[in-house]
Amino acid sequence: VCGCCGRCRPRYKRLVDNIFPEDPKDGLVKSDMEKLTFFAVSAPEKLDRIGEYLAERLSRDVVRHRYGYVVIAMEALDQLLMACHSQSIKPFVESFLHMVAKLLESKEPDLQVLGTNSFVKFANIEEDTPSYHRRYDFFVSQFSAMCHSTHEDTETRTRIRVAGIRGLQGVVRKTVNDELQAIIWEPQHMDKLIPSMLFNMQDNDDLD
């Protein structure tokens, strides 16, 4: 890409690109992440575009199995979510949850756990204005399925199940924090939540 084309790219894209090192093993470029965060806080109206572009990059890296870059993208999303609290965060949250969902749908246990960890962090954030239209049906279903993991490796199976339990706890916490508890108590959710918890309690008893 020529220098001119690079300069013609929107600033938010250049800032996002700069947080990714040439070698993913080097991790998030912290100095450039600070610049991206400052930009996002100073120009919250750009948050949705930042989220969409990060989601675009992450989706591409998941497909290409470039998981080191996936981890970096999620770390950036987590940090932006923690730093930005404004009316403009709602579209960003939608991009964030879309990415979490993509990781949870992955067949890679490490990505499922990564997505769960990000969701749990999100669940602990109190948004300035709760989004009453947001539904968590997918997350209840996905975390419940993880609670029933039958992965052939015992240690991996346990990791996935524990992540599923943490995810369900996060969904409950988020809906209560956002005063949406009426939604979580709906039968279609409770019919998945309770059996998932009991299944793992029984499994632990069997191991004892």
Automatic annotation (TrEMBL):
Coiled coil: none annotated. GO terms for biological process: protein localization to plasma membrane. GO terms for cellular component: plasma membrane. InterPro entries: ARM-type_fold, EFR3-like_ARM, EFR3_Homologs. Belongs to the EFR3 family. This is Protein EFR3 A isoform X2. It comes from Clarias magur. The lineage of its organism: Eukaryota, Metazoa, Chordata, Craniata, Vertebrata. The gene is efr3a.
